[in-house]
Amino acid sequence: MNLTPIELIATAPMGLEAIVAREVRELGYEQVTVENGRVSFIGDALAICRANLWLRTTDRILVKMGSFPARTFDELFEGVKALPWPDWIPEDGEFPVEGRSHKSQLSSVPACQGIVKKAVVEKMKQQYGAEWFRETGGRYVIEVSLLNDIATITLDTTGPGLHKRGYRKLVTEAPLKETMAAAMVLLSRWRPERPLYDPFCGSGTIPIEAAMIGWNLAPGLRRSFNSETWPLVPQELWKQAREEAYDLVKDDVPLEISGSDIDKEAIEVAMAALKAAGLSKEINLQVLPVAKIRPRGDYGCIITNPPYGERLGERDEVERVIRQLGSIYSQLPSWSAFILSPSRQLEHYMGRKSDKNRKLFNGRIECHLFQYLGPLPPRNRTSEE
User: Fold this and answer.
1) Residues 304-340: pLDDT tens digits?
2) How many CA atoms lie within 13 A of 224 on its CB side?
3) What positions does the domain THUMP occupy (predicted)?
4) Which CATH superfamily is domain 178-219+236-384 in?
């Protein structure tokens, strides 16, 4: 069992680095460094399992193999060759190389990928005494990332991005990524004892992610990962991490999570996702225009991602439904609202200025999370005593 320290990188969408770092610390890893688009931390092989199973707002978990100056192809080749590839990749391992370059003299990404592949092969030849490698075994995706003439070399432990939880087989036209939906819930002040309503729920991503947070369901429990086939991350560690996750589920917590959308087909897609996530009985969804929503309960949270109206003729409709949402919200004095939108006019349409807003990127679209902060629920004296 490999419990030696490993430097891991949790990649993060721009604007979510602090949330990812908080999640990493909550897993018990304290040596955390936050940079643009990534959060580095020190863990071990078990940390690879836990991070992939638990982190809700990161895209993928990478092993940092090394970092060094690389202004020439020779420097890149020698730097890569010096890394301990046979410690990680067995003789039959498949090791494709991906790459990117920014503000670096080595600007040809395909050429850099070729050099890295050649250097890894040379190192593997030294270890295994083979002239060529069949690459029929587990998958070890290597990435070379060049920034300001510094090469960072990583191994991807995840495979398909972590937003692919496994519950969404169908998608609507413009789905919100599961990682962003989870971030919106974590950035809100919602707790499982408070009602939650999404009036533009689309394929149901925000309600589902909220329910998973409310029940402390690890988002990666229903999927597999590249590193599950790696000898350095043995099956017993994956079994241990999964058993830990199942033991921490709180599915006896009552939830008041609802959503609606005017699009009947979107609700059908959402219902299929609810069923796949095992949450059909916990979340109430219906086909309903915004003007007719009536969120129930006190101290609830509206958490939503309204349509953007990017096409001609749609903007007037978007303005109309946001004004309707503003009118409904004005009748909910104890509620808070968290609305993700690229529109600079959203506060004007809502009829009031937000208490806070935070810049986030939904894919490549620059948005703001507009936060309308209602009162917090009174503290439960009984639970405090």
Assistant:
1) 999 987 665 688 899 999 999 999 999 999 999 999 9
2) 7
3) 47-157
4) Vaccinia Virus protein VP39 (3.40.50.150)
